[in-house]
Specification:
Length: 241
């Protein structure tokens, strides 16, 4: 009787062990092949993640470089003299063309007002400090001027008037004045220096110095520019933070 009870209990014990084996909380031993496949899968996943991250960073770097060399590249400001007005010209004289022209008088203060435009082709504002201008007549300095500071918006053109005080005694001391007045023109030259800076997105901050030399032929009667040739030289320097 006892033997039959022991035999009947044996299958129940085997069933309990098999149920414990298939419980979810019971650790399932892995074979060496399974462990190797798991390691390979993890390494491959890490490589894919690293590759995606590296590709993303490279794309971002390329986009930044393209923006720096295209949109964010600092371009030279364009400066032009649109019109010149000579004030305090008194008296009349007959020129070779038979028309009366105003002539300067000794001791009378003269001034030249230049209408200057500054075009900013950059994608950031161009701020400039006081401008200095020297006026020459046949290589003789006949006047100087100091222009006000200002700002030109991105892609815009700003205009300002620069008044140059002319020293009439120096102008009339030139032996070429009589001949030029007879022809009704004044060949002059100017040299301007405009310091400023261009700042883009708080990343690119460059100091800009525009140096411009112009040869101008002014019609005295109409006070218009008959001919103008300008040469610009731009100096760019990265500012320190």
């Amino acid at each position: 009787m006892q033997g039959e009870q022991m035999r009947s209990l044996a299958p129940s014990s085997d069933l309990t062990r098999s149920q414990d084996f298939f419980r979810s909380d019971s650790p399932v031993p892995l074979k060496d092949e399974d462990e190797g496949l798991l390691i390979v899968f993890r390494n491959r996943r890490c490589l894919v993640c690293c590759g995606c991250t590296t590709a993303f960073l490279l794309i971002q770097a390329m986009v930044i470089l393209v923006l720096i060399f295209t949109l964010f590249r600092v371009r030279d400001p364009i400066i032009n003299i649109n019109r010149i007005i000579i004030t305090s010209l008194e008296g009349q004289a007959m020129n070779n063309n038979g028309s009366n022209i105003p002539i300067p008088k000794p001791g009378v203060n003269m001034s030249l007002i230049a209408d200057v435009s500054i075009k900013n082709p950059n994608f950031a504002s161009f701020r400039y400090n006081n401008t200095t201008t020297a006026l020459y007549y046949h290589e003789i300095v006949v006047g100087e001027a100091l222009g006000p500071p200002g700002r030109t918006r991105p892609g815009r053109t700003s205009r300002m008037n620069i008044t140059v005080d002319i020293i009439p005694d120096k102008l009339m001391s030139s032996p070429n004045l009589t001949s030029d007045l007879n022809w009704g023109v004044l060949p002059m030259s100017s040299y301007s220096r405009i310091p400023g800076r261009v700042k883009m997105l708080s990343i690119i901050n460059k100091h800009v110095i525009v140096k411009m030399s112009c040869s101008i032929v002014v019609n005295i009667s109409s006070q218009t520019i008959q001919d103008q040739k300008c040469k610009r030289k731009i100096n760019l320097k990265m500012l320190k933070w």
